[in-house]
Amino acid sequence: MKTMHRTALPVVVASVVGAAAGSLAWGTSAAADPAPVEKTLLALAAGTVGADGAASEPVVFTGQASITGRVIYDTVFGAPPVLELIVDLSQVTGKGLRTGKAYQVASQAILHRPLKAFEPVELGFSFAADGGVTLARSALATFGVYYNAASGVSTTPVQISTVPRT
C-alpha cells in the first residue's frame, strides 16, 4: 500500500501542474481571440396596431428604435459565434387614432441569434396609454439585421404591426 501511494503521488502532482498550465494557456489564447465590437444603430420605427376590442382603438407608432449589436465568440468550448442584439423601443411612441391618447412603449430585449449574413427578427412588446399598465396591449416589431465582417451590423427600419392571432 505504501509503495502504491509513492508511485501515484508524482502522477497526481504532474496532472495538477499540467491542468494549471493548460488553464493558463487557455487564458492566453482567449486574449488572442477578437474582442467583441459593439455597434449601436438608430432605426426608424413606424406602423399601426389595430383595435383588438370595442374598448380599444387603432394606434399609430413613430420614433426611433436603438439596436446594439455585437458578435460573441465562445473561446472556451469553441461553439459557433452568436450575434447579441440589444433592442430598446423606449423612444417609440404611439397616438390613438380616435381619442388622440399618447401611448408609451417601455420595452428592452436582449436577443442571441446565430451569426448569419441576414437574420429576420420579430419582437413582441407591450404598450399602454399614459403608462396605464393594467390596460397594456401587445404589438409586434419586425426588422432585419445584416452582418458583414468588414462593416459590422446594420438594420432595416422597424415595422410595427398587430400581433397575428393564432
UniProtKB/TrEMBL annotation:
Keywords: Signal. Residues 1-25 form the signal peptide. It comes from the Bacteria. This is Uncharacterized protein. It comes from Ramlibacter alkalitolerans.
